[in-house]
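All the exercises in this workshop are built on plain-text protein records. A record pairs a protein's sequence with a compact description of its fold. Read left to right, the backbone structure tokens trace the chain's path through space. Once this layout is familiar, the rest of the handout is easier to follow. Here is such a record, shown just as it appears in the course material:
>
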Amino acid sequence: MMIIAEKINSTLKSIRPAMESRDKAAIQELAIRQINAGADFIDVNAGMFHENESEVLQWLIETIQEVTDIPFAIDSPSAMAILTGLKANKNGKPIINSITAEKARFDAIIPLIKQFDTKVIALCMDDSGMPETIEERVAIARTLIKNLSDEGVALDDIFIDPMVRPIGTGSHYGMIAIETIRQVKLEFPDVHIACGLSNISFGLPARKILNQAFMVAAMAAGMDGAILDPLDKKLMSFVYATEALLGKDDYCMEFLTKFREGEIEV
């Protein structure tokens, strides 16, 4: 499964001060810790810096790529900030997080995908707002996949985000996300699925337990990517165990390797 490490995010109070003070050592140390824990991409988000988001995002990317060549997930609601991040990037093919089926957002992001040949997370939302049903989400996913494909984006570069909403605000949201994943993956097996995992538990206690349970169910439904905390050793243990159980780890070699390295928490 593709792991997009979530910790370098300005919405997190524990890391924002390092961004404010331009603490290179703290940012680089956190990036390396996430990579050593299994991250495939490093998400970078400076969205809380409303007046100078582009500047902070550029600084984050330049700072992190001094110590690693792991690619980035460039995460912003601003197309201008994403453009700045893409121009600063030297770490291979990044992911843009994210595009939607909203016309203004799609029209703003698609030129960046094409110009810089990126991967993209495509969020199941359109101009009618947040979809409530499985059918609405799958229909938006179809539209996104068609429109991205028509623009020349390879299916392997598309990651559908089913829009995970907190089960604390609606007990049906967990199953809606899981069934959306299942149906999209069945219809488009060459497209990837990636979501913001921790959204499922927002506002509830014992969030780590809910995140772990949701991840296993979502992986069984076809999810093959997630924005998550790779420093959560138990969560990562469930990633390796679930991949083994789903037949995605030949002879359990990855699981056995991680166990021998002490990366499996029991």
Notes: Strands lie at 2-5, 41-45, 72-75, 95-100, 119-123, 158-161, 192-196, 225-228. The chain has ten helices and eight strands. The chain has two domains: 2-232, 233-266.
